[in-house]
Amino acid sequence: MRIVTVRRISQVFFLGLFLWLAAVTTFGEGRFQARGWPLNLFLQLDPLPALATTLATGTLYAGMAWAVATVALTIVVGRAFCGWICPFGTMHQIIGWLGKPFRLSQRTRMNGPSRWQGVKFYLLALILAAASAELVTGSASRSVTWPVPAQVGIAVAVAILVWWALTRVVRSAARAAAWSAILVAAFMAAGRILPGDEVVVSVDLVGWISPMTFLTRGMGTVVLPLLDRSVGLFFSAPRHSQGGALLGILLAASLLANFVVPRFYCRYVCPSGALMGLLGRNALWRVARTVPACSMCRACDADCEGACEPSGAIKTSECVLCMNCLPACEEGVMTFRTQPSMAGERPVPDVSRRGVLMSLASGLALAPALRMAGQAGAMASPALVRPPGSLPEPEFLDRCLRCGQCMRICPTGVLQPAGFGNGVEALWTPVLNNSIGTSGCQPNCVACGFACPTGAIRPFSLDEKLGRGDFAKAGLLKVGCAFIDRGRCLPWAMGRPCIVCQENCPTSPKAIVLESIVETLREGPYELDEIKGTRVKLRGALLRPGRLAGGDHLLAMAGATAHGLPILDNDATSVVLARPADDASFTPGARLEVRVRLHRPYIDPDRCNGCGICQHECPVVGLRAVRITSENESRDPRRSMGRG
Amino acid sequence: MTDRPDDLPRREFLKRAVRAGATLAVTGAAAAALFDNTPPSAGVGVSPVGPPFRDWSLRDDGPRLAIVTGRDRSRTLSRAIDALGGIGRFVRPGDRVLLKPNVGFATPPDLCATTHPDVISVLVRMCLSAGAASVVVTDNPVNDPDTSFRVSGIAQAVESSGGRLILPREPMFRHVSLAGSSLIRDWPVLWTPFQDVDRVIGICPVKDHVRSGATMSLKNWYGLLGGRRNLFHQRISEIVRDLGMLVRPTMVVLDGTVVMRRNGPTGGSLDDLEAANQMIAALDPVAADAYGATLLGRTAGDLPWLAMASAVGCGTADWESLNPLRAVVD
């Protein structure tokens, strides 16, 4: 079998596996549900999220260690992941093939090298620098500190990197070394002196752009919800996706770009590809030309997926091992072997040291700049209600990949990608939106903690969520607290019975408690005209027929302390009482008023876990009269309202 | 005609003129055909109004209320239906039967906030043994539908007993205006599953409910409403009455084996529950509810909708007048 056929089989297999895993990302044990499937397999195989998250947190978390397998594969043979495994790459390749021009010269031009291929390396530098600020400085705010020798090693490595980059800016190598030492020392000192959580912080930006997070998010928040809406494929209720248009446009743009340049994303954008390009620098086997000179027909360049220019000095970091050049060469001089290409090799495309330096500096500056508004601390948006089990905000942002797995698996669809309103660095992280979804955050559910690949939402048990068993002392796992808006609440503001919130509150005893009151209607009082059995005629009344029906309204002597008699029905000028008036003062000429029995809701913050079902069910349709905000969330004691 | 090179050749000019003329004609014709001089009316966007449901009630002279005491739901239910004349009275061979349980919340069966799955399986099997062509089970839960049916155990009960589950989806709702109701006006109602069924049986537990006093057989039909149905809590007695007018079932089963005394209708704790050991099967939902209220220690005066529903002919609140058949199984 031809090597290209083998590669295609591998690609189809992994694309199918990816689609299957995306499809079964629903919580349960059914045939098309999560069961024990490795839902995050591809997110974990991508080495960049693993590396960036490790830099940001100091540990390689659980399943993220699968990335080591990809790293090992890449070190030995180069970017095989890109050409053989990556489902996003396969999609790009398929679309590029659909748009493939017929003429050889056009294809050669399209698949030739471009200076834009360097961009992904700058992105890589930026992401890694943004993730590692705290690590490099050993900042005091870190929850995980590395041993001193490791920190010294990191400092030396960074100094060498800075020196290497500076040698192009500062002509003298010695002066470059001096500058490098000064810069690194100053940065480390700043990390130890300045308040760490404000100035020297890490932020894990990898999820915005790395291929597996980009694709997983697109599937979970756009493609599959569209299928649910149209054919109800995985959820019977339609799924919403906050800001889904932007996510959809980005996914579509990344795929359609292949008509302009095949594998546009892989060649120019993909920072994981850049990382693997660097890791594969010393690959034991590589694509190579066996002779120093050939006829230069450039048939090998025509269908080159990586635009690595196999006809010339091959750019090893760009080769995705598509192997198209092997059968394309009619002279049979292209091969895969241990010796370097006879036509020469270049490890990376045009990447300027200045550019790398700028990207590193930008990355280090980016996190503190993003935090300037204090949105991860004092200025945290009250609307940023995180899923249960979420870490405190700074640690959450160190880990969250914005992959959307929690949103997809959430049975009610209440978890939504955050927009720009909660701080730029929170873009596409999960937030509860109780106005959409089928019913808030369900009490008997642990799906999001189960799905999260990095532990930004740590796995939590039902006992922990409900504060029972071993967790009885810790109490409920709260995501926020409900607040009644008394200016909008029907019984509070408008004299109408309602209490839908109390009814739907799922805790026992309920976190919404009621106060029963009797309020006098503003219309009236009326003069009693005559009584016939249970029917009382009122002079001067002009009532909407049936308005007082249903037993909530009472007829009473004006100003009397007794509540009055329940009204069953009414027409324009008379009311029907539930029983004949036994009150001797009910005589013609008596002044009567109509009252209404109301239950007014109050929140008990000790029992409210912020599930949001009350907000979801509130009949005040726009801005709900009961709303959840992040106060009292368990994850951060600074957000507590204290105990009464 | 001149030969100057910048002159338009006649043939080219004619071709262009014909194309331009055709475009003009199509534009003009389309504009004339689509021209509308009336401004949009205020009712724009309001869905068409369909007829209400058919009447599934049984009007024979047989007994109309059975109350059986016992702990085992399957036995008390079988006994209650036998007392009413056996399942054959309600389901004839070839009938298509719809069961409407209360699947309001995603809570496990032990908490009794939803119809107990045992009651569902027994009833599905009974209907099938009576020769029913199909038995479908549906509801529009408050919580997430997929999860509610699953966590309540009802989905599993339906599947294992040979029934068919219908999860509510948007296209299954139709806007309905109910004659005599001021609330169910142009309102979305779960519609499709009720078409082409010959029998409708409501099955629900007895639960506390602050706003309406109790949630039982009549309020069980709340699950048919779509849209922002919580609006109706402002006029709860009327909506419960109107639901009685909306659905005239073949039979209702009111499960008072374990009743939710407080913290309803969600419950959430075993402390909210109490054993009453009563299984009620009735052709008259108002009578069933009037008896059910006594299990919660409530009177007809606490539940104004009983009298209101009775007044519009949904049944009688005087359950004793039906001479209920009583039995005890242990």
Outline the fold blueprint.
The complex is a heterodimer of chains A (644) and B (330).
Chain A: H1 3-23, H2 41-45, H3 47-57, H4 67-77, H5 80-85, H6 87-98, H7 104-110, H8 119-137, H9 148-166, H10 173-193, H11 206-209, H12 211-231, H13 244-256, H14 264-269, H15 271-279, E1 286-289, H16 299-302, E2 314-315, H17 325-328, E3 334-337, E4 345-346, H18 353-371, H19 393-399, H20 405-409, E5 415-417, E6 430-432, H21 447-451, H22 462-466, E7 481-484, H23 490-493, H24 500-504, E8 512-520, E9 526-532, E10 535-539, E11 553-557, E12 565-570, E13 574-577, E14 591-603, H25 613-617, E15 626-629
Parallel strand pairs in A: 2-4
Antiparallel strand pairs in A: 1-3, 5-6, 7-15, 8-14, 9-10, 9-14, 10-13, 11-12, 11-14, 12-13
Helix pairs in contact in A: 1-6, 3-4, 3-8, 8-10, 8-15, 8-18, 9-10, 9-18, 12-13
Chain B: H1 10-34, E1 65-69, H2 73-83, E2 96-101, H3 117-129, E3 134-138, H4 145-151, H5 154-161, E4 164-166, E5 173-176, E6 187-190, E7 199-209, E8 213-215, H6 236-246, E9 251-260, E10 273-282, H7 285-295, H8 304-311, E11 325-328
Parallel strand pairs in B: 1-11, 2-3, 2-7, 3-4, 7-9
Antiparallel strand pairs in B: 1-10, 5-6, 7-8, 9-10
Helix pairs in contact in B: 2-3, 3-5, 6-8
Quick synopsis:
The complex is a heterodimer of chains A (644) and B (330). Chain A is of the alpha+beta class.
Describe the structure.
The complex is a heterodimer of chains A (644) and B (330). Helices cover 39% and strands 12% of the residues of chain A. Chain A is of the alpha+beta class and 644 residues long. Chain A folds into 2 domains: 1-141 and 195-371 and 386-460, no CATH class; 516-601. In chain A, helix 3 runs parallel beside helix 8. By secondary structure, chain B is of the alpha/beta class. Chain B has a single domain, classed as 3-Layer(aba) Sandwich (Rossmann fold). Chain B is built from 8 helices and 11 strands. In chain B, the strands form 2 sheets. In chain B, strands 1, 2, 3, 4, 7, 8, 9, 10 and 11 form a 9-stranded mixed sheet that branches. In chain B, helix 2 (73-83) crosses helix 3 (117-129), helix 3 (117-129) packs parallel to helix 5 and helix 6 runs parallel beside helix 8. The termini of chain B are far apart. The relative contact order of chain B is 0.17. The A-B interface holds A 28, 232, 235-238, 411-413, 437-439, 442-445, 490, 496-500, 502-510, 514, 546, 549-552, 566, 568, 578, 599, 613, 617-619, 621 and B 105-108, 142-147, 150-151, 167-170, 182, 209-211, 228, 230-231, 233-238, 263-269, 271-272, 301, 304-305, 307-308.
